[in-house]
Amino acid sequence: MGSIETAPAGAAELSYEKFHNVVASGLRGSEKVHHGVNPSDKSPLWDVPIATERDLDEAVEVARKAFESWSKTSWAERQEILGKMRDELTKHIPDMARLLSLEGGKPIQFATGEVMASVGTLDYHSKAPSPGEEILEDGDDLKLTLRYVPLGVAGAICPWNFPLVLAMGKISAALLTGNTIIIKPSPFTPYSVLKFAEMVQQYLPHGVLQALNGDDKLGPMMTEHPGIDKISFTGSTATGKRVMVAAAKTLKRVTLELGGNSACIICPDVDVAKVAPLVALGAFYNSGQLCVASKRLFVHESIYQEMLEELMKVVKGWKVGGTAEEGCMLGPVQNEMQYNIVKGFFEDCAVNGYEFAIGGKAVGNESGFVIQPAIINNPPSHSRIVKEEPFGPIVPMMPWSTEEELIPRVNDTRTGLGGSVYCADIERANRIASQIEAGTVWINSFERPLTQAFFAGHKESGLGGELGRHGLLSYMNPQVIHLYKTDVGKVAKL
């Protein structure tokens, strides 16, 4: 018994309790299914099909065929379609926010914010200018022209922490630049991505955007598939390295956005009461499940105790719980695997006798994966909580005295994704920021990537980057035309 075909995608009223893979022009089921888990109470969510190797092969074949015509459409035509996709998603904001809240464990206001950010991502790309052509040289004998052409079929492997908006960055850029794309959501959070792919099929030629949910076999099959020309991966550094190895077999283009251990630096001249809420958001937003979250707090010794007390006051004022509870600021950790990883950091800190300024009890809700946020007061530099990324609501805070001793501590990590600096003296803030070995640094703001800003990691935080006009180039190949102005025409005969 093979795959199960259902109605053409986008042809009927959307159901938010039935989910399918999107292959070619149809919604497809499978003999094997699995389901996500509501992290607030561990209840099972809806069944989703597990794509087979045959599904992937067919999706690639259809995508390659679709590329032939899609790549020849104009930039303006593709922008118009992205605008229609934006408008379609806008119609479904409440329902998509509900999906994100249930699958991701986000309080509804933040789930709505992610859908709005996804709308904004589509909107940005619907208006982004083409990279066009650049004349490198135009002399009497030679004209050199640099242009950019689409790669072909892109494969996008997406994470579970921000499933929709991170998928949208990949989808928008790939389609705008003339590529077709096969998107694989995380099996922990497949629902919003699959539903988006379904709802926008009505605006796209068959095979331009396809979506496949799978088990742990599908990602490796995509990275090794000879018919896929590029892999865009967002996830852990360890998995990113495996993606790079697999992609090397066919010399695929790869973009890797990986883990980080970002430092937040707070200078002595700030207004502590103003800055503390921003620092708290940077550390604990989405329960710390943000790749660029402030994962190490460095506070100047002259305001250290004052800042610690103010942070404790802010965090204690937040409600933490399941998404069904009203007024929550922080929801649960998204899945049991990550929950156990984060619990391990709590246990390591407790065993080693580190001081919990706030928190200390990892489990806040036995029925779900809720964890009360914790601040570890001045743990040693060699401690696990300082050296590793917990990806959860626990953060170390440490004092510093001079820039000379601070910067080496900040950069003492194999990763370099982000960082932040709070300082009233903008000249000093820029001086410190310029010494942080990371792809993005925020000054006087918590970490919030913007669609119009290129986003890339240094060191083991990634390879290449996405978003902004520079991110579009990661979905294109450069091509240089050498035009020699030699008369090669035939001599006319009298």
UniProtKB/TrEMBL annotation:
Question: What CDD domains would the database entry show?
Answer: ALDH_AldA-AAD23400 (cd07106)
Q: Does the keyword Protease apply?
A: no
Q: SUPFAM superfamilies in the record, alphabetically?
A: ALDH-like
Report the catalytic activity. Answer: an aldehyde + NAD(+) + H2O = a carboxylate + NADH + 2 H(+)
Q: Which UniProt keywords apply?
A: Oxidoreductase
EC number(s) for this protein?
1.2.1.3
Query: What stretches pass through the bilayer?
Result: none
The answer, when asked if Cell inner membrane is one of the entry's keywords, is: no
Question: Which InterPro entries does this entry report, sorted A to Z?
Answer: Ald_DH/histidinol_DH (IPR016161), Ald_DH_C (IPR016163), Ald_DH_CS_GLU (IPR029510), Ald_DH_N (IPR016162), Aldehyde_DH_dom (IPR015590), LUC3-like (IPR044086)
Residues covered by the Aldehyde dehydrogenase domain: 34-480
Q: Which residues form the active site?
A: 257
One GO MF annotation is: aldehyde dehydrogenase (NAD+) activity
Which family does the record assign? Answer: Belongs to the aldehyde dehydrogenase family.
> What name does this protein carry?
aldehyde dehydrogenase (NAD(+))
Task: Give the originating organism.
Answer: Phialocephala subalpina
